[in-house]
């Protein structure tokens, strides 16, 4: 039987492990050579002598992946296509956000807690609280509005 203090330690360790697993899964897909390969592939698609419609479709897919890679480089985190789409909507609605704030917004939307985001962004937990306060203002949210709810709703709109 664990004491309440031991139960809290176990819960904290489980949360840390879960956060590290999420970060590891994102880092595992990070490959700097992907951008060069995608650009080469796009150039090869443009050089193909095929019907315009499939050529245009293939080029559009490749370009979307290149755009995602460029955005990932800016916010310094590997992005899924869904993440990139969310960030482009966020950036369009809030052009005043810088790259660090975009990254923090993505991590908030992905259910990272303040400690996990602070570690990922290399800031103190107190600094993360300040960053959230400033984000709340930049996103023009009301006093009782949740950043997480706002970002989740923005992603689904």
Could you characterize the architecture of this molecule?
The radius of gyration is 19 Å and the shape is elongated. It is an all-alpha fold. It is built from eight helices and no strands. The chain has helices at 4-28, 33-47, 52-75, 81-93, 99-109, 114-121, 125-138, 147-156. It has a domain at 78-157: Response regulator (Rossmann fold, 3-Layer(aba) Sandwich). Helix content is 76%, strand content 0%.
Features:
157 residues; 76% helix; 0% strand; elongated; single chain; Rossmann fold; mainly alpha
Briefly say what this structure is.
The chain is mainly α.
CATH first level of the domain at 78-157: Alpha Beta
* Beta-strand percent range: under 5%
Determine the fraction of residues in helical runs and give it as a percent range.
Answer: over 70%
CATH superfamily annotation of the domain at 78-157: Response regulator
Could you give the topology of this structure?
Elements: H1 4-28, H2 33-47, H3 52-75, H4 81-93, H5 99-109, H6 114-121, H7 125-138, H8 147-156
């Amino acid at each position: 039987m664990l004491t309440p203090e031991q139960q809290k330690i176990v819960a904290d360790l489980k949360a840390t492990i879960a956060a590290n697993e999420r970060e590891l899964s994102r880092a595992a897909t990070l490959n700097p050579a992907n951008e060069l390969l995608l650009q080469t592939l796009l150039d090869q698609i443009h050089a193909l002598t095929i019907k315009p419609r499939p050529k245009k479709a293939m080029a559009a897919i490749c370009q979307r992946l290149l755009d995602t890679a460029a955005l990932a480089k800016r916010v310094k985190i590997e992005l899924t296509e869904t993440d990139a789409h969310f960030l482009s909507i966020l950036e369009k609605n809030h052009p005043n956000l810088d790259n660090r704030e975009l990254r923090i917004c993505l991590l908030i939307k992905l259910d990272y807690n303040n400690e996990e985001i602070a570690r990922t962004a290399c800031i103190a937990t107190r600094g993360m609280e300040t960053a959230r306060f400033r984000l709340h203002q930049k996103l023009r949210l009301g006093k009782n509005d949740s950043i997480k709810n706002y970002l989740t709703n923005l992603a689904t709109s």
